[in-house]
Amino acid sequence: VQAAEADIAARAATPAGHVVLAAFPSAAVAFAPAVTRQLGAYPDLSLVIRQVPADCRLNQLRSGEVDIVLSVDWNPTPPDDAFTRTHLYRDALVLAVPPAHRLADPARPLDAATLRTQTWIALPADDPSRRALDRLIGDDRANAIRWEFEGLATIVALVADGAGIALVPHIALLRD
Questions:
Q1: 15 — alpha (psi -120 to 50), left (phi > 0) or beta?
Q2: What is the mean pLDDT of residues 34-54?
Q3: Which of 7, 79, 105, 172 has the most other CB atoms within 10 Å of its CB?
Q4: Are 50 and 23 contacting, i.e. CB atoms less than 8 angstroms apart?
Q5: How many CB atoms lie within 10 A of CB 100?
C-alpha cells in the first residue's frame, strides 16, 4: 500500500497526458521549439500543436477538440465565461527589409513618402494586420503592393531574398 501511495504521489507531481493546443501559424513556428524542449523532461506528457484558422479556434475549444488556444486579438470579442483568457504577449509590427536594403541602415531616417515608393510584400487584404500597412501607404497601395501571400514565413523569406519589404508582426521574425 505504501509503495502504491508513493507511486501515485510521484505521478501526481509529474505532468502526464495528452494536450492539444490550437495556434496561429507564426505562434506555432515561434514557440514550438522552446515548448518541446521544456516538455521533453516529462516523458508521459504529449503535446499536439495545430495551426487552426482563427474562426475555428474557439469552436474547437468549446467542443473539446483542443485544450488550449493561442489567438491574436485584433478585434476583441466579448468575454465568454466558459473560458479563462490570459494575455501572454503584446506584439509590435516591424518593418522587414533585406539586409543590404538602404532602409536597413538604422541611421537613415524613415518617412512615409519613402515607404510609399517601395515594393511591398503583403498579407491578403482580409487579414486584420494588413490594415496597418494599408493605412501606412494610403492611396498608393495599389501600386506599392506587388506581392501578396498568406503565410508570414513566405513573406519573411521573400524579404530576405530581396523581393521587397514588408510590415510583419515581430513574432514572425522569432526563431528559437
A1: beta
A2: 84
A3: 172
A4: yes
A5: 7
AA letter at 150:
E
Q: Write the secondary structure of 34-71 as one string of H (helix), E (strand) and C (coil).
A: HHHHHHCCCCCEEEEEEECCHHHHHHHHHHCCCCEECC
Confidence of residue 140 (pLDDT cuts 50, 70, 90): low
CA distances, 78 to each of 25, 60, 82 (Å): 24, 18, 12
Residues 6+ apart with CB under 8 A from 2: none
Mention every residue, 6+ apart, whose C-beta is less than 8 A from residue 114: 103
Cα atoms in the Cβ-side hemisphere of radius 13 Å centred on 65: 11
Q: Do 56 and 138 contact (CB within 8 A), yes or no?
A: no
